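Hi there,

I know you've been waiting on this one. I reran it after we fixed the sequence typo, so this is the corrected version. Both the input and the resulting structure follow.
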Amino acid sequence: MEGLRGIAVTLVFLVHYDSLFGDWLAPHSVGARVAEFLRTVGHSGVDLFFVLSGYLIYGAVISARDFSYARFMQRRLRRIYPTFLCIFGTYLVLCFLLPGESKLPPLRGAAILYVLENALLLPGMFSITPLVTVAWSLSYEVFFYALIPLLVAAMGMRDWGVGARLWAFAALVAAFLLCSWMGIAHVQLAMFASGVFVYELTSARPMVREPARRRLLCWATPIMTVFALPVAYLLVAAPRMFDAVHYSARTASSLRTIWLFFALGTFTLAAFQPSGLLPRILSAAPLRWLGNMSYSYYLVHGLTLKAMTIIAHRVWQSGISPLLYWAAMPAMYACTLASALVLFASVEKHLSLTRSIHPFQVSSIMSRSPWHFPGGFPASFRFLRSALSGGWAWRQSRPSLRLDTVHDRPFLRGQ
């Protein structure tokens, strides 16, 4: 799970890096076309987040025996708001310090209303420009949080069998995609349902024979892994690449969502298998560390890149080589990782997550010499690694979902 989150935020990084540094590339050059491809497929990172949220939140709701809607929403808002408000406040301060970069309306009344709308996470579900660029997806998340418990309770889905629930969600998704094709916005909401399907299929052992499922995933996973992002790119870019292809941006968005619904769902389903190459890759420590602080990374990386853009343009006022675009990418990625680590350790881990080790202060860890830890440098490295991973257990076995009472959020643990 955390490895998938790490991949998702890396894809999102590609989008915003090219948006801010893309003018370093010559238009219509090979490098510009490669960067355009990376930026286009990078948008799939948010779709992958939605799949994972659908899996986790739906699983927590459908498996709960004593479910409290108020307590559930309180936990969800506690998970989202502390870190968001920290970044939101930073953006507000910067609006006053850098008026040229401010998104606030000039009139005081309109500015107050705009701030309230953003604080309530309305941009995204409503046609409002977000102050924090990536906050539009949080509006989608909160909408799903609020809707799915009501839907499950209203339809009595906890008493249904797996097959009945799958058919019900298939009908709902088909109806929603049809409405989106006809003009209703927010087609990406369908990606949450992909996570719902993943949860039901991973919990449907009596319904699906194990050998059959393994054979299906065996040939479907490589196909989806190799072709998921290129096909998503072609569905969006085909009208401007091929003169014979003509369809609107709305149609392209619908086709892309339908494809990613199956591609990312299959990819996630394969990642949750007890063995195989993909689960081993996603269990790599760097991906898991990044995944653990993925929410902090998602919120702060854009601000970090914007700051680095201002610095870079002041350092290189002219004569920027296109090679610098590719050479600077790893350095900028490292800068975003550093800022995300600070935000995660100072805000998210303290206010949204209960710590498994007590207490964890990044400043104190970084200020201590490695030889102050019993066992020397290896021990200090293991301590930092444990802090980043939150002390969460991970074993190569079939993942199961439960709402953890320590961390107060659903996550995967081996059985």
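Quick highlight: The CA atoms of residues 41 and 229 lie 6 Å apart.

Best,
R. S.
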